[in-house]
Amino acid sequence: MIYRFKGRPFEKLISGRTNKQFGMFDRNGEYLTNDTEIAERIVAVGRYDYVKKEDPFEVKEEVEEEEVLEEVKEVTNKRTCKKCGEEFENQGLLLQHYKTEHPKK
Ligand SMILES: [Zn+2]
Could you give the percent of the chain with pLDDT greater than 90? Predict the structure, then answer.
């Protein structure tokens, strides 16, 4: 989840507890964070308007993971003999094929 806070441009966000700056609004007066702990502290201040939305990066990661899984599946499903181009369902069958069809001299 991404929190987008609205403040003044370049306004500093200072922790009331430690008195240390932990963030700053950008030139558009926006501050984005996906750190829920930080976001809730800013919300607690009650001075800033904010909107919550789905984190596009989280969604993107999921998609990428799926793509990788599919790639792995493809690789594990079919094995191609580098010498004659014949396809095999798995590595074991390919190795067997190598032994019988292309024995090492
Ligand atoms: Zn072969």
Answer: 40
- Residue 82 DSSP one-character state: T
Ligand 1 geometric centre to CA of 36 (Å): 56
- Whole-number Å distance, alpha carbon 51 to ligand 1 midpoint, is 60
Measure 82 CA to ligand 1 centroid, in angstroms.
7
Q: Cα of 94 to ligand 1 centre, how many Å? A: 8
Residue type, 102: H
What H or E segment, with its residue span, contains residue 67? helix 56-77
Q: What is the pTM of this model?
A: 0.50
Report the separation in Å between the CA atom of 77 and the middle of ligand 1, taken as the mean of its atom positions.
Answer: 17
- The two three-digit tokens of residue 39, written as one number: 């976001």
pLDDT tens figures, 15-33: 777 888 888 999 999 999 9
